[in-house]
Every structure is written in structure tokens, then in C-alpha cells.
User: Fold TMD11 protein from Centropus bengalensis.
Amino acid sequence: LPLYFQSGEREEKCIIEDVPSDTLVIGNYKVQRWDIHKQEFLESAPGLGMFVTVTTPDGEVLLSKLYGPQGTFSFTSYLSGEHAICFQSNSTRLEAFAGSKLRIHLDIRVGEHFLDESVVQAKDKVNEVNIRLEHLIEQIHHISKEQNYEREREEKFRKTSEETNSNILWWAVVQTGILISIGIWQIKSLRDFFISKKLV
Assistant:
């Protein structure tokens, strides 16, 4: 999921990542600062760090750490659901003077375990094949977890839809009953009115 977004120098920006339980999430980011004189984002932002905070669906802080102008963070989810990943610069300038714009490039990979370069260049082909096979098995487990999570979400959505449809049906029945009752009452009232006026 490569993307970039802009932020104020002391502004906190969050993205939401829907993650299955027991899943490794790896994020790589790079910060660029706006240069007023050159009217462009500089390739690096020396001296500027980023606080990265990850919050679980139930509000627990899973990761809170200060990194440099570019870095890699990782965490393993223990709950399935929407995790908030927030970024805020460590600028110490007062709010009134912290007017620089920042551009944050972000690449998030969910459930990926990267192969070590030394493994790729291993001379022992049997070990290399074994490690690659383990890597593939890990990826299969991750895909299986993703499918189970999607199945759970689909089941929850289906139950919610069925409950909503049931409520709508009962509301329609109640409305029809009320309309029929009002119609009968109006007919009775009109009949009584006509009888009392001796029009019938």
C-alpha cells in the first residue's frame, strides 16, 4: 500500500489499516519538508523525527516510538480489526511558528515476511530451497488468515443486513396496521356523523 500525504509540522495524521489477528505489519516511511525559497519539497528532512503510534481496535497503544526522518516500523496484531497508525513530527517550534508543510511517503505491507538477502545468495541450494519453502508456507498461512477474517466480516455484515431487513419488514407491518386502523376509524366517524345529521 504505497501512498503519500501532506501534514502540518506539528499536526498528527492517522491512517486506518484493517488487519487480521496475529499478523505482522511492516511500514516504511520517508519525510520531506517544504522549502519556501525553492518552492518544493526537499529530498530529506534532516533533524526532523516522527513519532509513530499504533492503536488497536479497542484503543490500546500497541506501538509508540520516535524514529528519524525516514525509517521502518513493525508490529504484530493480536486483535482483528481497524488499527490506527498515526504520525506526528517531533518539531519543538511553537505552534505559531511551526508552519512548514511535510510530505510523508508511506509503504505498508501486511503479513509479509521478507527473505534475508544472505538467504537469496546462499550457496547451499538445499537450505535455500528449504527457507524459500518455509517462506511460502508462511505466506499461505497469512492468506488463509486473511480469508478467514474476510469470511468473519462477511458473516457479520450478512447478520446485520438480515436484522435490518427484518426490522424494516416489521416496521412496514406496523405502518400498514396503523393506516388500516386510521381508515376504519375515519369510516366509523364519518358514518356516525352522517347518522347524527340524518343524512343516511
